[in-house]
Specification:
The structure is a homodimer.
Chain A (H helix, E strand, L loop, with lengths): L6 H17 L6 E6 L2 E7 L12 H13 L8 E6 L3 H10 L3 E6 L18 E3 L4 H18 L1
Parallel strand pairs in A: 3-4, 4-5
Antiparallel strand pairs in A: 1-2, 1-3
Helix pairs in contact in A: 1-4
Chain lengths: ~150, ~150
């Protein structure tokens, strides 16, 4: 049987979240958490609206997924996020013992890979899914912001 | 004039928070954030009660301090925390650009120092303030927990 659910499908869901952040004037990053092909949590960056540096898309999705599951460990879950997680979010993902992380665009300067943030040994990480789309949205945001200032 | 406010004074406030966590059956870690010798935010570990790995003492204190200040940057603020921050909390502190971090006990395995979490260049970090008291509380928690199981 043809399987409609794949990494691209769920990354599109994360991109929808990123677009919601964009519309609110936030750096457009979105995330969803999936278990058994079902989205159980969503989040988008709200650091400006909440004046809170901890309000990254991933942090909200982690809290929402734990709430949904009734437990703090995200075993068998996959996070889809449009930008490589930062140290804070990767540190939270470490504690969550999440099974998989899939990101779209790399963050060479502030992402967890180049900063060597430790992930849980049970966690896999891969990138590049819809990278062009996620990067284009981020670029559009920063160009519009520059033009406004 | 004699100054009653020093690192020990504020770390005692953080230890009071850690004791609240202890009483709730949480790993006893507490934190306060101080500006101009005034405590503007408090937090204690609530990961079990909230079933949320992001509910560390520091994270709650950062959110509360930003809320109090009406801005997401914790310039001129000092965080007092009874245990060296983990990667997640240090990552949040990086984004907050907090001026100073003072911790009590080291966390050699999961603390930000040995895991090389990047702090903001404007941030200073020092440890060892009331280290014995903070460590004793943590040890008592794990001994009692072991005896219960």
């Amino acid at each position: 049987m043809i399987q409609p659910f794949d990494d691209t499908y769920f990354m599109k869901k994360a991109l929808q979240e990123a677009e919601l952040a964009f519309e609110k004037g936030e750096i457009p990053v979105g995330a969803v958490i999936v278990i058994d092909n079902r989205v159980i949590a969503r989040g988008h960056n709200l650091t400006e609206l909440l004046t809170d540096v901890t309000a990254h898309a991933e942090m909200q999705a982690i809290t929402a997924a734990s709430n949904f599951l009734g437990g703090k460990y995200l075993k068998d879950c996959t996070l889809y996020v449009t930008l490589e997680p930062c140290q804070m979010c990767a540190g939270a993902l470490y504690w969550s013992q999440i099974s998989n992380i899939v990101y779209a665009a790399r963050d060479l300067e502030r992402g967890c890979i180049n900063l060597n943030t430790k992930l849980h040994p049970k966690t896999t990480i891969k990138g590049g899914v819809l990278e062009a789309e996620a990067s284009a949205l981020l670029k559009r945001f920063f160009i519009e912001k520059r033009n406004l200032n």
